[in-house]
Amino acid sequence: MTTSPQAQEQAAHQLSQAIGRHMSKPIQQTQAMLADAKNVGVVCHVHPDADAVGAAAAMVMALRQRGLWAVASYGNNELPAKSLLTIPGWDAFVPFTELDEDIDTWVTVDCASPGRLGALEQRLMASDRLINVDHHPTNTRFGAVDLVDEYSESTTMVLLDFFGVWGIKLTREMAHALYAGLLTDTASFQFGRSRMHTAAARLLDKGLDPRTIGAQLLEEHPFAYLPFLGTVLATATEVKSFGGGVGLIHVTIAHEDQRDVGQDETESVIDIVRTTNAADVCAVLKEYSPGVWSVSLRSREVVDVSQVALSLGGGGHLRAAGVTLEGTRDEVLEALLGASDVAASTASPDTRR
Ligand SMILES: [Mn+2]
Questions:
Q1: What is the Cα 245 distance to its own chain's centre?
Q2: 308 Cβ partners below 8 Å, 6+ apart?
Q3: How far is the CA of 101 from the centre of ligand 1 (A)?
Q4: Which residues contact 22 (CB under 8 A, 6 or more apart)?
Q5: Given Cys at both, which of 20, 34, 181, 261 links 154, Cβ 3.0 to 4.6 Å?
Q6: Secondary structure of residue 267 in the 3-state scheme
Q7: Which residues, chain by chain, have CB under 5 Å from ion ligand 1?
Q8: CA of 109 to the centre of ligand 1 (A)
Q9: Which of 308, 303, 312 is nearest to 281 (CA)?
Q10: For residue 340, what pLDDT is reported?
Q11: Would you list the DSSP string of 212-259?
């Protein structure tokens, strides 16, 4: 029997929209564990981003819809970037020191490894009822149940699939929280499968305004942002030999540069640096407290930066990854440049320029 091109296209479309078959078992296991849960703590990674806050907030809303008691938290003391406070469900977060003793089940979201739990690592890893929900290819599968889909664009996409099977009725607030993670983790719908758009359409159809949410999350900077950019972008340096010749551009944000700006401003720098085409890899070295540096890595099309980050003790995705390192700026830069061979080894010869 021959299949018409239309039928083939239809079948390909259905496949692209389907939840990966590898997810059916972890989805069942997650449902089973939550069926026996009463009080649930949902924990996202330290120094959360929009996917972390959005996923935790949406998960708490879904758990409460199912009649469970639930709160969200993360394992560090500082407030997240101001823009993240616009995500509905932020009010479900409590400081990690105030997490109830009666919590019987934990759900981690957007955490690739136990180290990302910060101050909550020991407490959560001591539990045998931990559900690890994530989309990082470098996830270490540290849960009793691992609901990890590395093909998903965001952790909120993993949850959207799960909620569909779990029978959750999507509310406007839930859709907003899920959309926040999808929008930002795809760099405004540049990285992902076509189903990121069908998912976005479903979420927007709950009554969301993409312009309002986009502006809230990505385009609300104070005037001080401009002189700040002037200072940090002036540090841009090109290392042509990095990664066997694919090149690296690095930019430094020293602790004192951040006096007049917040995390929304510092986090945006990598998205400016990565628009230059002079090198495949770019890095922003950000000193978030004196001597402690978060190194954000991006690649355009050749290097697998998740492997570069992993070799330094961090993790992430093919085109976006990160690691926290301690020392002086020169020591951190030296460590990064030392990963040049790792970068080269991930570059496929035919795509190397
Ligand atoms: Mn994520």
A1: 29
A2: 281, 297, 321, 339, 342, 343, 346
A3: 28
A4: 149
A5: 181
A6: helix
A7: 51, 110, 155, 185
A8: 8
A9: 303
A10: 97
A11: HHHHHHHS---TTHHHHHHHHHTT-EEETTHHHHT-EEEEEE-GGGGT
Q: Separation of 322 CA from ligand 1 center, angstroms? A: 12
240 alpha carbon – ligand 1 mean position (Å)? 30
No. of H helices and E strands in the chain?
A: 14, 11
Cα-flanking dihedrals φ and ψ of residue 104, to 5°?
A: -105, -15
- Give 148 Cα–ligand 1 centroid separation in angstroms: 11
Cα(8) to centroid of ligand 1, in Å?
32
Burial code (b: 16+ CB inside 10 Å, e: under 16) for 207-240 equals ebeeeebeebbbeebeeebeebbeebeeebeebe
Q: Does residue 46 sit in helix, strand or coil?
A: coil
Q: Which residue has the tokens 């694919």?
A: 246
Distance 4 CA to ligand 1 centre (A): 39
Q: Which residues pair with 134 in a beta bridge?
A: 148
Residue 5: predicted pLDDT: 72
pTM of the model: 0.89
Per-residue DSSP letter, 305: H
pLDDT digits (tens, 9 = 90+) for 205-233: 999 999 999 999 999 999 999 999 999 99
- Residue 111 CA, ligand 1 centroid: distance in Å: 8
**What is the whole-number distance in angstroms between the Cα of residue 270 and the centre of ligand 1?**
16
Phi then psi for residue 278, to 5 deg, are: -75, -20
3-state secondary structure of 154: coil
Burial-class residue 126 by CB neighbours within 10 Å (0-12, 13-18, 19+).
Answer: exposed
Question: Using CA atoms, how far apart are residues 286 and 4, in angstroms rounded to an integer?
Answer: 54
51 Cα: distance to centroid of ligand 1 (angstroms): 5
DSSP SS3 for 295:
strand
Higher pLDDT, 127 or 8: 127
pLDDT at 121: 98
Q: What is the arithmetic mean of pLDDT over 299-309?
A: 96
Instruction: Tell me the mean pLDDT in the region 123-139.
Output: 97
pLDDT, tens only, 269-287: 999 999 999 999 999 999 9
